[in-house]
């Protein structure tokens, strides 16, 4: 047998690559998204119809400026849930995590989801200013380079911030707006903007983020907002869409409920 049904039928583990999928259609059809093959009891049968997308690149650009101190636990807990949620779909995907304060740092550079560890509380210490534009610009550049390795790949970048840009040195607002417009015009890039800033909606609009891809949340529902983003990303992974401008269907009142369902990060 080339697969194993686990978790009381909720998951299927491929015996060839060792990866697990929890996507109902994959389990029903005995399909491994990593190997891109249908699995049978006796042989591995290569699909004559290949998946539309051979890779999805996911970027998470996370604010780590000083004002995020009140959201520190929510950010770490939410990010870990985000990775767990999208990893469970078993689709070919890589993750780029970029943290930014006065400067930016690409922590995971197009990493295989299997190799992305949990974010520890100690590794996310808010401080400094907000180099949002530089973080977005360099994340796009890194993901774009990786995207060119595949025949048919798509990319989505989720940005979470609680403040306004005030520290970038390389990219201006107009440069980021132009970059987003150029990438979206290709039909396989999406940009999502999650913000708790008072002027967050206008900030997102000013760089060309579509209204359907923006969420204005309160700091009390930060973890639930990231949870909603995880659900939106998982739905995007399982779809055939090249891009989306209707990222999350969650209502604002749902964020607290979603946040209550995920386990807080161990801060001991």
Provide a brief overview of the structure.
With 268 residues, this protein is α/β, with parallel strands linked by helices. The protein has seven helices and twelve strands. A hairpin with a 4-residue loop joins strand 1 and strand 2 (11-14).
Describe this structure as you would to a colleague.
The structure is a single chain. With 268 residues, this protein is of the alpha/beta class. It folds into two domains: 3-46, no CATH class; 55-260, Rossmann fold (3-Layer(aba) Sandwich). It is built from seven helices and twelve strands. The strands form three sheets. The chain has a six-stranded mixed beta sheet, with helices on both faces. A three-stranded antiparallel beta sheet has the order 1-2-3. A three-stranded antiparallel beta sheet has the order 4-5-6. Residues 42-50 have low confidence and may be disordered.
Q: Uncertain regions: pLDDT < 50 for 5+ in a row?
A: 42-50
The strands making up the biggest β-sheet line up spatially as 9-8-7-10-11-12
CATH architecture of the largest domain: 3-Layer(aba) Sandwich
The count of domains is 2
Number of strands: 12
CATH class of the largest domain: Alpha Beta
Helix fraction? 25-40%
Instruction: Give the end-to-end Cα distance, rounded to a whole number of Å.
Output: 43 Å
Largest sheet: 6 strands, mixed
User: Roughly what fraction of the amino acids lie in strands?
Assistant: 15-25%
H-E order = EEEHEEEEHEEHEHEHEHH
Provide the CATH topology of the largest domain. Rossmann fold
Radius of gyration: 19 Å
Oligomer: single chain
């Amino acid at each position: 047998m080339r697969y194993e049904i686990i978790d009381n039928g909720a998951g299927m583990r491929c015996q060839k690559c060792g990866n697990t999928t929890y996507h109902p259609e994959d389990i029903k059809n005995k399909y491994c998204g990593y190997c891109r093959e249908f699995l049978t009891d006796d042989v591995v049968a290569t699909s004559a119809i290949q998946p539309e997308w051979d890779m999805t690149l996911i970027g998470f650009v996370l604010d780590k400026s000083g004002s995020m101190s009140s959201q520190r636990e929510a950010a770490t807990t939410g990010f870990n849930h985000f990775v767990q949620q999208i990893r469970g779909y078993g689709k070919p995907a890589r993750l780029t995590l970029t943290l930014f304060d006065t400067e930016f740092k690409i922590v995971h550079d197009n990493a295989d989801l299997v190799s992305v560890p949990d974010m520890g509380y100690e590794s996310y210490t808010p401080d400094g200013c907000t180099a949002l534009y530089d973080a977005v610009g360099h994340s796009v550049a890194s993901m774009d380079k990786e995207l060119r390795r595949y025949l048919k790949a798509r990319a989505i970048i989720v940005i979470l911030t609680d403040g306004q840009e005030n520290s970038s040195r390389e990219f201006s607002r107009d440069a980021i707006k132009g970059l987003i417009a150029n990438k979206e015009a290709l039909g396989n890039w999406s940009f999502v903007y999650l913000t708790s800033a008072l002027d967050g909606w206008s900030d997102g609009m000013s760089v060309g983020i579509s209204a359907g891809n923006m969420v204005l949340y309160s700091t009390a529902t930060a973890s639930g907002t990231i949870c909603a983003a995880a659900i939106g990303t998982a739905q995007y992974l399982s779809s055939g869409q090249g891009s989306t401008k209707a990222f999350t269907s969650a209502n604002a009142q749902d964020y607290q409920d979603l946040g209550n369902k995920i386990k807080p990060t161990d801060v001991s």
